[in-house]
Design goal:
By secondary structure, the chain is mainly alpha-helical. It folds into two domains: about 230 residues, no CATH class; about 80 residues, no CATH class. The protein is about 75% helix and about 0% strand. The protein has ten helices and no strands. Helix 6 crosses helix 10. The relative contact order is 0.11. It holds the Pfam family CTP_transf_1. One of its GO terms (biological process) is peptidoglycan-based cell wall biogenesis. Keywords: Membrane, Nucleotidyltransferase, Transferase, Transmembrane, Transmembrane helix. This is Phosphatidate cytidylyltransferase. One of its GO terms (molecular function) is nucleotidyltransferase activity.
Length: about 325
């Protein structure tokens, strides 16, 4: 384990211990009786412990384990997305292709470090082939809505999420063997932005930023959370190939994209008439409820890093 990895792990564990202590003290101060905000906070902390342990184990096992972990995440996220989709029996072949061809092939390209196919397979071949298989079902009822929903699900749950482990494909001069830290930086910054927006919103929030899409989001929470998380990303520049100023700009970029992604995914949930994508993670809803910000931030971050800092890859 490198010195950077050891120091980052110590910081993360230390912050989680501090958060757990704060959550316990807050619960004790209200007499351990039910309290909506504190109970939600403690549920989030417990879920974060689980996620950090799982990610830590995958990171310790190496590249293959990380790819397999995100393969499983994509599978579950795609299942959540399409469970809420207006599909019909005639979509069987399209769904079969999505789960058992498109998804495995995307991660196979990442595992075999085939950058070209990883980048274009789903946006080009998947985009065209999935509606073809849907059409073979012979059902024209709401065909455009059904076909585009499957396309959207594959792009969000497979292509966007797979951009996180794909960061390991980028050869960065002077940063060899440390790409896992780039994944850690992205996840920490974007997820901390979500948490800090929640905290700032509870402390200072007054004006709703998108009341019909996400009633809990406020202008004050958005501004405070994004700024604080961007400063955190800048402070963690030492685990990235960026210098301090670049790290701040990159953090600001992914945090803004993460916020936009959260709004888009909230709009989809409102359209389907549900509050959460699922109930997999206590305190966080479903898999997509936790990853909605990363879904929009990860692919842009991948390509900016690739073209800004990486060497040409085959």
């Amino acid at each position: 384990m490198s010195q950077e990895t050891l120091l980052l792990s110590s910081l993360v564990v230390g912050l989680m211990v501090l958060a757990s202590v704060v959550g316990f003290v807050l619960k004790m101060r209200v007499g351990f009786v039910p309290h909506g905000v504190i109970d939600n906070l403690n549920a989030r902390i417990k879920a974060w412990w689980v996620m950090i342990v799982v990610l830590g184990i995958a990171f310790a096992l190496g590249r293959v384990a990380v790819v397999l972990l995100f393969f499983g995440i994509s599978f579950y996220a795609l299942r959540e997305f399409l469970t809420l989709a207006p599909t019909r029996r005639a979509d069987y072949y399209a769904l079969l292709m999505a789960f058992y061809v498109a998804l495995p092939l995307q991660y196979f390209f990442i595992l075999t470090q085939w950058y070209g196919m990883m980048s274009i397979f789903l946006p080009v071949y998947g985009f065209l082939l999935l509606p073809i298989f849907a059409a073979l079902g012979g059902d024209t009822t709401r065909f455009m809505e059904r076909a585009s929903t499957v396309q959207w699900g594959v792009m969000i749950a497979v292509y966007c999420i797979s951009s996180i482990p794909a960061l390991m494909l980028i050869p960065i001069p002077g940063y060899e063997g440390r790409n896992l830290l780039l994944i850690a930086w992205l996840v920490l910054v974007v997820q901390s932005s979500d948490i800090l927006q929640y905290v700032c919103g509870k402390l200072f929030g007054k004006r709703k930023i998108a009341p019909l899409l996400s009633p809990s989001k406020t202008v004050e929470g958005f501004a405070g959370g994004v700024l604080a998380a961007s400063l955190l990303g800048a402070a963690l520049y030492w685990i990235t190939p960026f210098h301090f100023g670049q790290a701040f700009v990159m953090a600001l970029l992914v945090n803004l994209l993460g916020f936009a992604g959260g709004l888009v995914m909230s709009a989809i949930k409102r359209d389907r008439g549900v509050k959460d994508w699922g109930a997999m993670i206590e305190g966080h809803g479903g898999m997509l409820d936790r990853l909605d910000s990363l879904c929009f931030a990860a692919p842009i971050f991948f390509h900016v890093v690739r073209y800004g800092w990486g060497l040409p890859v085959a």
